[in-house]
Amino acid sequence: MQPTTHAFPENARKALSDERLQKVLAIAPAGFVNRRKQAADRLPEFEDLRDQGRDLKNHVLANLDTYLEAFEAKVTEQGGHVHWCRTDQEARDAILGICRKVGAKTVTKGKSMISEEIGINDYLESNGLTPIETDLGEYIIQLRREPPSHIIAPAFHLSKKDVEGTFRQAHTDLPPDRVLDEPKVLIAEARQVLRRKFQQADVGITGANIMVAETGSTVIVTNEGNGDLTQILPRVHVVIATIDKVVPTLEDAALVLRLLARSATGQEASAYTTFSTGPRRPGDLDGPEEFHVVLLDNGRSALLGTEFQDVLRCIRCGACMNHCPVYGSVGGHAYGWVYPGPIGSVMQPALLGVKEAGHLPNASTFCGRCEAVCPMRIPLPKMMRHWREKEFEQNLQPAAMRRGLALWGWFARRPALYHAATRVAVRALGMLGRGKGRFASLPLAQGWTRHRDMPAPEGRTFQQMWAEKKAAEKKGKR
Amino acid sequence: MADTRPAPRVGLFVTCLVDVYRPTVGFAAVKLLEDAGCTVEVPESQTCCGQPAFNAGDRATARDLARSTIAAFEGFDHVVVPSGSCAGQIRKHYPELLADDPAWAARARHLSARTHELVSFLTDVLGVTDTGARYDGTITYHDSCSGLRELGIKEQPRRLLATVEGLTLNELPGAEVCCGFGGTFCVKYPDISNRMVEAKTADIAGTKADTLLAGDMGCLLNMAGKLKREGSAVRVRHVAEVLAGVTDTPPIGEKA
């Protein structure tokens, strides 16, 4: 997927004037927010679990090599294969290689953000394979050839009506006069179409919410059961995951699961939580003949030991974007690439570079709601600020803003001059604004006055009035 | 038994927006502090806490301004700020900003520990339960983000407002959602900021309140600017003005 992150302001403007999208955004995030809050309130130890989650991931990140090698040893011991991939290209090639080796034609897919990150669908298609998304939301946006707009609800930006239109266009072998007015009916239709695909698939690709070092297991959570059919029915199961997803033990996995479902959808547990441990063993009733884990770095290890390391604690629950007022205003597509919302504003500069993605960490009011709900207590605003520092160091910010801030900084460092200058400016503004108490338009403040009035200052600075008051008191005493 | 302890010596950090836009808030803060038994001083060498530079990624300027603020406020028992955002900058960010500066790290931590947002200082440190003010009107209250999430200010202003005679509080739905100000955010991304403040003014209108209060000038200028552009009659004031009973100045954005 070609990023359009550099065009964030234009993307945002389009999203803001898209009435259909605005209708969805006016309702959908609130549902997530309420359900998460109820789930957190029901569990007295939820805040403690967040501390534990943070500590667990910090420990893992400090010992990442150890746990990844332990994980690999266990996978191999059980007859699976681990493919270490440094870049997205290496991961695409590893997956294509596995598919080619078994002569695959159809590939089913569970939901995976990493598969979006490496653009595997396009790659497989251009190499003659047919990838089929089996998560309902992913299936819908695959039919529409759109990227996901949310990391756990890929079709977040669509209404029921949109989905109906998409299905009518895509499922041409079904009667055109069928009634498709209920979500239940839409789901049943997708289910019916996807059943056939599950049976045709040679390879199933899933992501992994967690990798467990002590057992060599990968874990996925879904609410549709599509992940299980994706990984059990085909001959080959390929897991694509990044290195930050490993935890030491099954107990640690349970901790992540308790945090994940509550933070994501407000559920106690997702409907399906599936552990995959190696290929089918003699005597097993089902399971794939081959089990591969494509273990991707793609820039993660470069964040270790930097001010951005904490972002690798992310478990991709989506709570940050559900609570973000900027995401709630413009939706996911405006972010221009795979990861939207606050987590995207930290991850995309890391993956795409600050030149391409510099807008995202700037497009935040630092309201802190994301950090307040992050199950892994990632200090997202702080990390966005660190990206702004990188931008500042590299001189990438708009020249007018840089000059303005530099001038202000020069005065603010010189209190006497600062107070003299503010006195003069405030006096002038106060006189000009006295008639109405506000300005409808002000030179150099168009960004402000385009949408709102600028209240006028009272006319004198506090420092000036305070000094006069003190002088008068002194005089009075004498 | 009379309290024989000496009056706490408080340094008032005015904040740049109160200094230039609304001195009334500064005088309201002084009144509240003096009524609660403090001696208030206003060091002349203060300018800005440095947050705009800090949030723009300019650490060098932010550190310079942090050092001069620390120097300006050494020696006070407490430093009080009529803003959650600027108080948060000093409390939460100064220690981090100067952590690797051996000459300043300890001084930054010391200032951080003594610095408080005005309303929470009155309730939590001084134990004020009633400011003896009167305000005839129905108000609604917006929780500014930094005060709420960095400093945990939520109940304190409501507790004191509940004792103001003649005042009714209608809670604002989404009071904890950002108003869209965000410092330079509102001019860098004006359209997104506008969507956020639009949602806020719609919520404010829904409360049927005649007055909007909050504890931070940035948010207040943003919300007042939008309300006035929309032709709303809602009056906008800093919470300190109402708590101190200093309401003879016209509301924010209105003529005398």
Automatic annotation (TrEMBL), chain A:
Alphabetical list of SUPFAM superfamilies matching this protein = alpha-helical ferredoxin (SSF46548), NagB/RpiA/CoA transferase-like (SSF100950)
Range of residues in the leader sequence: none
- NCBIfam families, A to Z: LutB/LldF family L-lactate oxidation iron-sulfur protein
Q: Which UniProt keywords apply?
A: 4Fe-4S, Electron transport, Iron, Iron-sulfur, Metal-binding, Repeat, Transport
Gene3D superfamilies reported for this sequence: Alpha-helical ferredoxin, NagB/RpiA/CoA transferase-like
The molecule here is called Iron-sulfur cluster-binding protein
A Pfam family cross-referenced in the UniProt record is LUD_dom
**Sequence ranges assigned to domain 4Fe-4S ferredoxin-type in this UniProt record:** 305-335
* Entry-linked PANTHER family: LACTATE UTILIZATION PROTEIN B
From TrEMBL, chain B:
Which part of the chain is the Cysteine-rich domain?
10-91, 139-223
What is the name listed in the Swiss-Prot or TrEMBL entry for this protein?
(Fe-S)-binding protein
UniProt xrefs under InterPro entries: Cys_rich_dom (IPR004017)
Domain of life the protein comes from: Bacteria
Extract the Pfam families matched here: CCG (PF02754)
Q: Which PANTHER family match?
A: LACTATE UTILIZATION PROTEIN A (PTHR30296:SF0), UNCHARACTERIZED PROTEIN YKGE (PTHR30296)
